[in-house]
Amino acid sequence: MTDAAEQPVRRRGRNESEEERADRMWTELIQEVRVAQMGVQILFGFLLTVVFQPKYDDLSDTDQMIYLITVVLGAVTTGALIGPVSLHRIVSGRRVKPQAVRWASRLTILGLVLLLATTACSLLLILRVATHDGFVPYLVAGVVFWYLLCWFGIPMWTRYRHTSR
Known about the structure:
The chain is mainly alpha-helical. The protein is 76% helix and 0% strand. The chain is elongated.
């Protein structure tokens, strides 16, 4: 019978150092953030132009409030999703990449949650102005559910289902 200490160690995943793993994770994170950054910057740019349209003055007080909330959400979303770039630039060369990757990942998740809120508010405003129908909140709730499923539900299920214990 062989001793447990003599058993070969079975490893799953990559054979990489903490620094190599941080480098790989940083590259992957930045690629992911680029997609979200482009979307939020385009949305935010369009939101900034609404107030200068003649129809803006015709919006109800409620719709103007929804617009203001949406613009602020767009601004803070942009900050959260650009934050990882600033973080990397400021700490680059300081030998803290693993910690920077963790913070950048947190900023990215926060940015995605804020992007969900910004998109939902934008959709609410647009549909309220376009239709004035009572089904708008239900439609927006359906879209929010869809985003939650695609952005968080399926990834969390996949993580739970396929991560080794």
